[in-house]
Amino acid sequence: MSDHLQTSIDTAWALYTNELSDFVASMPCGQSLRIVAESGIDRGDGDSPWILLHSGSDDIIDSSAVLDSYLYADDEAGAGDDHLLVALGWTAPAARTEQGKLISRSMQTQRRGSRLLATQIVRAFREGWRVTHPAFLTSVSDGDIGREFRTATDRQLPDTTAVFPADMDHLRALILDSLGTSSLFIDRSVEENGDIRIDNFALPVHICFGHDASAVRLHAPLVTGVKISAALSHTLSRWTTKWKNISFVVAGDQLFAGIVVDTRTYIPRHLTSMTYRLGMFVDELDAAFAAEFGGTVFDPTHRHEEPRPKVNWSDDSGTL
Q1: For residues 244 and 261, which has the higher predicted lDDT (pLDDT)?
Q2: Rounded to 5°, angle at Cα 310 from 304 and 316
Q3: Which of 38, 57, 118, 144 has the maximum number of C-beta atoms within 10 A of its C-beta?
Q4: Average pLDDT, the chain
């Protein structure tokens, strides 16, 4: 990831923490605040990570955080970190399903500790749920007080507006506009074939267009020199299970990662969230990962030697 992008992300989280701390410190008795990570992943009702805060009497802030073990089935790897939630302070068992399955854990905080609570919430989303930017968090406030909490990066949240693309050119223009939001600092360019290239991460990420505006595919090269073996399919399956919504494909001797984003109803946040998800994944690649596939990490600076034209001499006149 480029230093400029990383700095902008860190700054956005710091601003978000400050604003959340101020909001929590001034929550009147009876107000609730629900913060949800909008990942753009539709896996069923109520599956997005959330933290709920409620301002009670005696300057006590009650908070509860949903558990990864509740959001994801027992046979799935999950995406969150329940152990981190406990370490951050959400230790007391809270809500349960009718069958007794634990939904969330809770903790109590004094209002004067709002700064620490805001920091814990940010760590839960950023480290536990791998939310890459506070622009992907939404919030809903309850209570007749006439005030709501917004992210520090965009108070109007236009990235949640749904648009129906008229055609591929319209969709491409919408995506370029979304990626060009000043708070994201995404370095993008349009390639000769019309695809969009993003160069903020360790490896290039491409947004590839199909035959219509119904979907786009985020695409990134990962490994060169993949060895075809009996264990390859097992390795691919394991990584697909670990990284939800990222598919892995071997073409020739190269390994690629991809995410398909439905754009029949285009919501900017879905696209930018998945772009960050794939970008953060390629940022974590190392030689050990490539070695699992028998190759090396893709080198974006490598250029194949241009093939030399083959010359054939005629047998009769001696001319080419």
Answers
A1: 261
A2: 175
A3: 118
A4: 80
Alpha-carbon separation of residue 100 from 76, 96, 97, 247 (angstroms) = 20, 5, 5, 34
Output the CA angle 248-198-131, nearest 5 degrees: 70
3-state SS of 25-80?
HCCCCCCEEEEEECCCCCCCCCCCCEEEEEECCCCEEEEEEECHHHHCCCCCCCCC
Question: Which of residues 122 and 5 earns the better pLDDT score?
Answer: 122
* Contacts of residue 56, Cβ cutoff 8 Å, sequence gap at least 6: 29, 62
pLDDT above 80: residue 42: no
- Cβ atoms 179, 166 nearer than 8 A: no
The pLDDT of residue 304 is: 47
Compute CA distances 275 → 197, 208, 260, 279, 297, whole Å: 11, 12, 11, 6, 20
What's the number of CA atoms in the CB half-sphere (13 Å) around residue 49? 25
